[in-house]
Structure formats: structure tokens, C-alpha cells
Fold this protein.
Amino acid sequence: MDNIVVIIIILAIITGAIAKVVIEKRNGNKCIGCPHGKSSDIECNCDDF
Amino acid sequence: MKIALTGNPNSGKTTLFNAITGRTERVGNWAGVTIEKKEGEVKKSISKGNASIIAVDLPGAYSMSPYTSEEHITSDFVKNENPDVIINIVDATNLSRSLFFSTQLLELGIPVVIALNKSDLNKKKETRINANVLSKRLGCPVVETVSIAGSNNGLEKLIFTVIESKGKTQQIPFEGLAINKTNRSAIEASDKKRYEFVKSIVLEIEQRKVSSNRQTKQDVVDRIVAHKWFGIPIFALVMWTVFSISQTYVGPIFANILAGWIDGLYRYVEGLLGQGVSPVLKTILLDGIIGGVGAVVGFLPLIMVLFFLLALLEDCGYMARVAVVMDRFFKRVGLSGKSIIPMVIGTGCSVPGIMATRMIKNDRQRRTTAMLTPFMPCGAKLPVIALFAGVFFNDAAWVGTTMYFLGIALIILGALIVVRISGEQNSRSFFIMELPEYKYPSIKRATIEMLSRAKAYILKASTIILLSNVVVQLMQTFNWQFQVVAEGAQNTSILASIASPFAILLMPLGFGVWQLAAAAITGFIAKENVVGTIAVVYSIKNFIDTDALALVGGGADVASAMGLTSVAALAYLVFNLFTPPCFAAIGAMNTEMENKKWLLGGISFQLGTGYVVAFIVYQVGTLLTTGVFGNGFLPGLIAVISIISYVVYLMRKGNQKSLAKKAVLEV
């Protein structure tokens, strides 16, 4: 029983971490945990030059 | 309602954007910090409950005729996306330059509201601007603002005026000539007329007490701080002081408290688990999750103090002077004058640093800068520096300072090599940078910057680092038959079998053990992983001794667990700092380089640099400290000679290409 509880806790922590990564990625954050990481989502218009 | 925030670089657009939206976008006191548009909703407390107002912060532009990619974004947005109102942020201390762009905006037919920003600086200098006359001459409302002030900043009045201006017809005080945009002399003639118009307005509305060409105390300080010879030692002294405060004195006090909490959590959970729980599950939860993540989080106070101090340095205007000092060297080795900005931004995080290279028009210079920016130690590398400085060098501030200057030296050397390999002529570029005035730094802004770094650090630790540690712990716990490896037989684990071949390659560098090879590999996911993985593979709960009130007071124990000499530890640190950055930064390099050959070349160059520098540090250091070369000297020397020979071959090939080009031009 103790093992099951610990497994559930570990899975909850891992699922939470994965969910956060997925949410951040969906929000356009290409560098999770980088300050101003969302800045990396807009493509450059350099081809126009 | 959509409003666009436009203005010259360094006029305070992003500061104003942050103030009206409550966002915390990166600001800086030099041009080029904002390289793309950002959107945010204006706070209801400022818009007084009016309908939703979306503010769009645009990169700085000097003209509506785009010259750089950032100006292109700004020009495109105001021309094509029809904002309801344009807020033109005008630097009140530099009217004549700012109003050139204003007159171009007024021609678009979109209502414009001028925010006369930095009005506080004018009051200090006793410069008077008659805003009413300016408003009449331009035919648009003018509101005085001080976007860095918490109150009486004019922002409510500005937004109120913006709401009032929606739908109104915009007068055009000066209409540019209809000219052929490819005719240079026609453009110059048109610009000259516009400047004359602007000058006539400035003469009418501005009264200066202090002449702008008079030498001030600031100029005297600049002559020393930005001096071509004194500038570098002054910068070294400043960085040494910053590292001393953050890593030797103030940082460890808070780090110790935090480490005590993490240790307490570890013991509490350990006590809760009891004897009935499987040892494998215990290890994953305690060592993998709490211990591994805790080891990384333990360095948070050091990082926070460091970034707080760097933010103060930037805010008081010093970092802009450092940019001037460095720019002198970078231009000489074939980099763009603008290359310094990505590198300064890269000290926080390589990703936005690499992205900032897009403002460099020359392909070779842009790609070279993107390739070399990761050599500046970013925030993610700081825990690695702190760990090794603490464990092996008694928290010495010289370790961090040396890594910064070694990074700068490698950038200069790298640029010299790349310019020869590419076979391009070293075209001199010019970059005029407006130096901000020295001022007392804002504690509030430094605190916001520090908290933003801390938030990002915790987010990374609780997601990427946590997941990596769990995977590393599982790979270390099981063998390929998915059986739990026996105590003391971890070298039969999945992790050991994957990392061991790499460890052989690292033997000549002094750290040829699978544990450190595994840590270096996971460092490519995020550099903080080096710390987390070392904690997991050596079962170290934290690197901070709670009893001795000193960071890594138990350094001797940690060092003996890792089985490294101080020289080998320094080589390992150098290897982790100067080999390719994390995958996110490599992704940014891919985007900005727009060329797979350059990307592969860049990654190989970084790998080769890290290997060669670590080899030199280990072998020369071992020779100096023990009188003999370290292990694996001969095979390492062969590898290093091969790398250097290949680079020399590429440089000679590039040189021939350059000579051939020259010959064709002469013919």
C-alpha cells in the first residue's frame, strides 16, 4: 500500500512537470525556464531584405 | 482598441509598455533590446475601466524607411495592421533626432499621441520644452511622461488622451516629397528638408540651460571607464566584486538557509516513507526528485544576488560603457559593431542573445555572432561555476571572473578564425551607440529583474531539471535487463553503459569517469543539469553545508566523492562552459543562422573549442602542479593536434578563396 501511494506521488510530480512543459510549449515558449523565453517564438522577416 | 508604441531606440518604449500593461518585458538602457513586437493589455487601473486596449510594443526605429529588420517590423506594423492610435514615445532629452521619425508617423493618417518621455531628466538639466507649442506645430496631442516613475508619471493622462484620439483625423504638419526610393540623392534631399522642419520646431520650443557640447562630469568619468586600456581592468575589477559579493559573501548566507530548508524537506519525506517502501521508489523520490532538484535550487540565492548586482550595473549605465570597451576589440576581429549587444544579452540567457543577432545585416557577421554568443557564461551556467568554485576553490571569486574573461577571449579568437575560414574580407562596420547618462540605479527595477530570473530558474528546476533527474536516476538504478543494479555496481547501469564510451574520450581532459560524462551530456538539455546529475549520480543531497554557514563547507567530501583534482575540476568546468550550449540555444542558432552548414560548423567549432581548452587547462595545470603531464596526454595531444590542423587547413583554404576573390576584383 505504501508503495502505491509513493508511486502515485511520483507520477503526480512527473505528470505535473510534463503538463507544465506542454503548456509552456503551447504558449509559444521555446525555452522553458529561460528569462524572456517567450521571445523566441516570432520568426524574423530577414528574407524581405 | 489597438495602440502601437513606437519611437527611436532607447526612448523608453518597453519601460512604458511594462508600466501600462504590468508586464515585465526585458528593458535596457541601450538601443536594440527589443527586436520584435510584443502585445499586452493596458491595465484597467490606467484605462479607467474603458474597453480592452491592446498595446503593441514595437522595436525602435529611426525612420519609416526600414534599414534594419527591427525597423522593418515597426514599419510593417504601423502601415499594414491599422492600429487605432499610435503612441510615439519621444525622448525629451533628444528632441531633434526623435521628431524626425514623428513627422513620418504623422503622414500615415493614423491618430498620433506624443509621449514626451524622460521629462524628469530635462527638469534636472533645467531644459524647458513648451509642450503646448509642440502640440500645435505637430497637430497632435503631447503628454509629458516619466515611465520609470511609480506615480505622477503622466501615464493615465496619456491613455486617456489615446482613448480620446481614436477615430479623429490626423493633421499632417510636414509632407515628404514624392521621390524615387532608389534615388539616394533624392532621399537625402527629402531628409534634409524634414530635418530643417524639425530643427525649426526645436528652436521654437526648447530652451537649454546646459549646452550639449559642454564637457560634463559624466564625460570625465567616461574617459576613464570606457578608456581603451583602463576599461578592461576596471571591468575585471567590477566583475570580481560582483562575484565576491554574490558567491563568497552575501549569496552563501541565503543559500545556506535555503539548503537547510531543502535538507529539512528531504529528512521529513525520508521519515514519512518508513521501512515498508521499496528502496527504488525511495531513491527516485528522495535522491532523484528532492535531492537532484534541491541541489540545483540550492544555488538560487547566489544567482539572485548576482543578477540583482548585474541589473544595478546595467541600470546605472555602466554596462553600456562595457559594450563600448568591448566593441573596440570585436570590430577589429571581423565582428559587427552590433555584435556586442547579443553578447551582453547572452550573459543572462543565450537564447535571446542569439536572437538579438538578427539585427546584424551582414550574413557572415550575424552567423559568427550567433555561433560565439554562447561562449558568454549565461545564467544557466552560473550554478555550475558556483558548484566548482565552492567545492574546489573555496568560493574564490576569481573563478567566475576568469570564466567571463576566458569567454570573451574565446569570442575574439573564434571570430578571428571564422573570418579566415569564411574567406571574406574583413569589412569594417560602424555602430553608433548612444550612452545613457549615469544615474542612481533603481532598486525596484533590479528587484523585478532578479525575481524574474528567480521565477525562470525555479520553473526550469521544477520541470526540465526534475524530469531529467528522474530519467537519470532510473537509468542509474536499472541495467539493460531492467533489473535493479546492486549497491556499488552502478557501472553496470544503463546510464554507465551509455556514458562510458564518452568518458574514454574525456580521459585526456582529466575527468574520464562515466558519472561526469553523463553530467556533461545531460548539460546539453539544460546546463543546470550538470549540477543536478552530479547530485544524483554521487547521491549528494545538496552542495551547501548547513552547519558551517559557508557554501559547500563540506567541499572536501564532495570533491573526494567526485575523485577530481582541482585542475581536473577546472578543466571540467571549462569543458561544460565552452562546449555547445543547451538544445534551446542550438535551436535559436539554427533559426538565426538560416544555414545548416554554418550550424554544424558552429556546433563542431564549439565542441572543438571546449575540448582543446579543457585539455590545455588539465595538462598544463597538472604539469605545473605535479611536474608531469596528466593521464591520457598522448592520445589527447593527437586529438587536439588533429582538431587544430583541420582548423588551420580550413583557414588556409579560406585564405586562398579570399585571394582568388581579390584577384578577380583586380582584373
Observations:
- Chain B has two domains: 2-207, 232-564+585-607.
